[in-house]
Write a structure and sequence with these properties.
The chain is an alpha/beta fold. The chain folds into 3 domains: 176 residues, Glutaconate Coenzyme A-transferase (3-Layer(aba) Sandwich), CATH 3.40.1080; 236 residues, Acetyl-CoA hydrolase/transferase C-terminal domain (Glutaconate Coenzyme A-transferase), CATH 3.40.1080.20; 172 residues, Gcn5-related N-acetyltransferase (GNAT) (Aminopeptidase, 3-Layer(aba) Sandwich), CATH 3.40.630.30. The chain has 21 helices and 34 strands. α20 links the parallel β31 and β32. The longest helix is centred in the C-terminal third of the chain and has 15 residues. The chain is elongated, with a radius of gyration of 30 Å.
Amino acid sequence: MDLKAHCPDKVVTAHEALSKIKNGSRIFIGTGCGEPQHLIRTMVSNSTLQDAVIYQMLSITLSKYVDDPNFLRRFALKLFFISTSMRKAAFEGKIDYLPAYLSQIPNMFASHRIGLDVALIQVSPPDRFGYCSLGVSVDITKAGLEAARLVIAQVNPRMPRTWGDCIVHVDDIDFFVPFEEPLVESVSVTKNHEVITRIAYYVNQLVEDGATIQVGFGHLPNAILPHLMDKKDLGVHTQVITDSFLPLLQNNVITNKKKSLLTGRVVASLCMGSEKLYNYVHDNPRFYFRASDFVSDPAVIARNDNMISISSALEVDLTGQVCSDSMGYLFYSGIGDQVDFLRGSAMSKGGFTIIALPSTAQGGRVSRIVPSLSEGAGVATTRGDVNFVVTEYGIAELKGKSIYQRVMELAQIAHPKFREELIDVAKKRHYIFADQLPPAQDDLIFLEGYKSRVTLRNGKIIEFRPLLPSDEFAYRNFFYSLKEETIYLRFFYKMKLFSHEHAQQQWASVDYRKNMSIIGLVQRRGFQEIVAIGSYADEGTGRAEVAFVVREDFQGMGVTSHMLPLLESIAKENGFHGFAATVLKENKSMLRVFKKRYPNAKVDVGGGIDNTIIMDFDTVDATPVEADKAQG
């Protein structure tokens, strides 16, 4: 459609259009990379416009003017999210932060709770039917222009035409200002490669093939995306698309085939990146852009099965409270859509949430896992909303966990130099037992090499990993799930109780080198439970004493047959040349397991109720054991 032919009176210069704005007006400006730069520059240069209030989601162009006292006398900025370029101004009190859930902002405009007089937006040229596209800025822009009395649109042929509910007819726009210019580009530079790689390694463990993902605002969540290249058939339902998604899209890692809502489509409401990204989304039916009251609505998000929300935080306290929008009293970013997606993902069938953050800040001087949030810090996400917290030191699972368990989970993934201090504070606050041992102060990244996964004969998958201090309650539940006979075969007496004191004794001996315990876990209704434990302990002779216990319903499936060579490999790394085991004479199945792997093992029958078996690693028979009913 030729605008000059269809509505010649509406096609004007920026100066002419902006002269229609009255002093004291409430002005909405389109978001982020879709903001109308030419209109903004012209508005600021119009010295006759005074006492105006500007509302914007993500402001970039205006950051060039916030240090000008004359600009601040004429305009008051109210931002729903503080961009990187606006952070300094926020710290200095030059802008006003408006905390709100992103999903609820459109209704604030529609209901006139936030009244708007003018909307300045940027659109693509109209098609032959007279429809312009909001392109890469749909989020709250559509609601803003619908609520405003006067709509002025910069028509830019470089604005992509995007698919979805993101069109506006020329009859709904009051003035058109044709002006071609490059869109704002926003490409983040990766920092702290080693830390990000380690965080991404753990996030990758949580994201299964076929999941639908959301990635929150910020550098870290987007830096994690390239580390998901080994996944298959991921889907996307997210607020903002960045360049980090491109490799996953171009290599068909993201196919959206398994999505339960809008199958085959990437659902989003913003696009912030490079010209390459804008060209990719242009007229691409793979994308479906909608406003934030749809994309960030928890009820809509929950319609995606296996929905995983990945977002970041500034700090997390030992009870699971999350701060993401302020550093103490200084507003840093915004509430945005974190809570929307956390709650939507939690309601999703098979869905969950991940908060990812480095363990430290300020060059390692400050812990981001803290006893309590900083004075003045806002609780963006409550204790009840968080499932997983990930740092470069591991994964803390909080959902369904008590304060005691949360303290242990979070202290375990804090930087090693802060762990003891965190435990000490937790004791003073009576969060944990007074005799609680702190997690090891080593960097335990090497334990990742001891993880494995095996498909059992019944088709179930069992995961093996080292035992951690935060496993105490899971270990306790495992013990009490065992039958008396199984406990007797392992401990040689009918042990009735597995107390906290006994658990502490178990953990005190695990240093992951001279002493090691490996647990086997299976998924059960969205969480993992322990079904097997194998341990070795230094006996001071160059050998380690080894023992196993497997829950009855997993006996006879080769569990011990996998754990034995795994423990042997770890023991070899740590200088041991063999195992020793004390096995009840009646436990013939365990004896067979040892003899199968170590055919030259020496068995000391003795005159008591047990046998002592001496096994040297250089006599190993690598043939797998066919059946495993052993307890020992």
